[in-house]
Design goal:
heterodimer, A: mainly alpha, 0% strand, B: 108 residues, mainly alpha, rod-shaped
Chain lengths: 147, 108
């Protein structure tokens, strides 16, 4: 026969399986769809803006000017252009530092060329070996970022 | 009036005398009754103590599971910090991204 002091302990232990259920009801659902910016709470907006504010405050005058003009450029894009740019951003994020340097150099060079010259460079680039590409980037460095 | 009431010493003597007059069996029964009354009170206290401890343990576990407890780890990072602190959006020329997203030129 069970002694009485063991009874409360058994009751508490029997309630343990309900603990995860309590946790689920107390914690917010991670996959809940978040609303548009206008419907976000001030705290949510603050959480989203904090990294950008810190970055802006830590930037020098040249970097601030670049950030602003880049932001304005993003804003001026059409929805289709923005989709392409986002795709390019994802591609860029998966590149190594060396590949990023190649992309900057190629982009900088392409902007100065005529359509025919661009096609020629594309053809030439696709036939280059990795070493030849390194040499080409060394000879055609990307334009320095304006300060 | 004092002459009508027995003194304390006289009463104690009478009590001691009456105890000696009791049979060993009666004394044993009295001792057992006193002991069981004391142990019942102590048992009640133990029961309440065990209940309180169990409740505290259950509440503690519940608080830990529900996330209401104090977190000792670092605070969760803001959502945008996962996208390279959002710096890539503003560091590079957006037209570079536009060109990269449109060209099939292999660079990777």
């Amino acid at each position: 026969m069970l002694r009485r002091p063991t009874l409360p302990l058994l009751i508490a232990l029997s309630l343990l399986p309900a603990a995860p259920l309590l946790a689920q009801t107390a914690a917010p659902a991670p996959s809940a769809a978040l609303p548009n910016w206008e419907q976000l709470s001030p705290a949510q907006r603050e959480a989203l803006l904090a990294p950008l504010r810190d970055r802006w405050n830590g930037a020098d005058p040249g970097q601030r000017q670049r950030m602003l003009s880049h932001g304005q450029r993003w804003q001026s894009m059409s929805p289709e252009e923005r989709d392409k740019a986002r795709r390019g951003l994802r591609r860029f994020e998966h590149m190594s530092p060396e590949q990023r340097e190649q992309a900057r150099a190629l982009f900088g060079q392409m902007r100065t060329l005529s359509p025919q010259q661009r096609d020629a460079l594309r053809e030439r680039w696709s036939q280059m070996t990795p070493e030849e590409r390194k040499d080409w980037v060394r000879d055609n460095p990307p334009p320095a970022k304006p300060r | 009036m004092n002459r009508l009431l027995p003194s304390d010493d006289a009463l104690r003597g009478l009590h001691a005398q009456s105890l000696q007059a009791l049979s060993p069996a009666t004394l044993t029964r009295l001792r057992q009754a006193r002991h069981s009354a004391t142990s019942a009170r102590a048992g009640r206290w133990r029961w309440w103590l065990a209940s309180a401890c169990s409740l505290v343990v259950a509440l503690g576990i519940g608080v830990q599971f529900s996330g209401l407890g104090l977190h000792s780890g670092p605070a969760p990072a803001p959502v945008l910090a996962t996208v390279e602190d959002n710096s890539a959006l503003y560091d590079e020329n957006p037209d570079l991204y536009l060109w990269l997203g449109d060209t099939d030129l292999a660079m990777e």
